[in-house]
Amino acid sequence: xxxxxVLLDVGGVLLVPHASEISxxxxxxxxxxxxxxxxxxxxxxxxxxxxxxxxxxxxxxxxYVRSLGIDRPTAIRDLQRLFSAGNLTLWRQQVEGxxxxxxxxxxxxxxxxxxxxxxxxxxxxxxxxxICQVGEGLGVPVLxxxxxxxVGVSKPAAEIFRHAIEPLGVEAAACIYVGDTVRxxxxxxxxxGIRPLHFDPYALCPRREDHAHVRRLGDLxxx
Length: 223
Description:
With 223 residues, this protein is of the alpha/beta class. It contains ten helices and ten strands.
C-alpha cells in the first residue's frame, strides 16, 4: 500500500467531535476515548440507514448516545442542538495518532490533499489546529483542501474528488482516499475512480470483503 497520492477526509479521520463539547451538552463527563469511539459507532449506524439525511442524523446520534451508555430521552435532542451549531468549535478533537501519521506521510514524500463534506470552515479548522494547510505553515503541507461548502458539491458525488485530483496532477487511479463512511467516502471515491480505504478503528464495518479497511492512519504511514 505505497501509493504516493493520498486524499483524506477530515471528520472521523483527522478530527472528531470534542469530548468537552459533548460533556457540556450532556452535562456529564465524557472522556476523549469515549467520544472518539462514539463517533465510529455513529458512522456505522449512519451507513446502515436508507440514505435519507434525517434518518442518517438520527441514527448517528442514537448510536452515539448508546455508545456512551446513556439512557436519557433528552440526550439525543441535546446533541442535535450541539451538532447543528457549526463545526469550528465542535470538530476539534484530534483522532488518536492521526496527526503524527499525517506528519510521517508528509515526510515520506506522499502528495496529500483533503476532501471534506463541511460547511465552509474546514480549512480554518485545520489551520487553527495546526494540523495542515496548503503550502508552508505550522501544520503538514498539503496540495489542496476541498470543502463541499466552498466548491458547492458534496460526497459521494465524484466531482468533489476531481477538485482535489487536479492540484495533484495525476490520474484518479493513482490515488487512494481515506474516509470513515461507506456511503460517502467508499462509494464516492469509487465513483471518482479512486481506490477507497475505509478508516474503521473498531472494525465495525460488516462489508469486510467489499473494500479495504485501515484501523489507524499510522498503518498507512508505515506501509
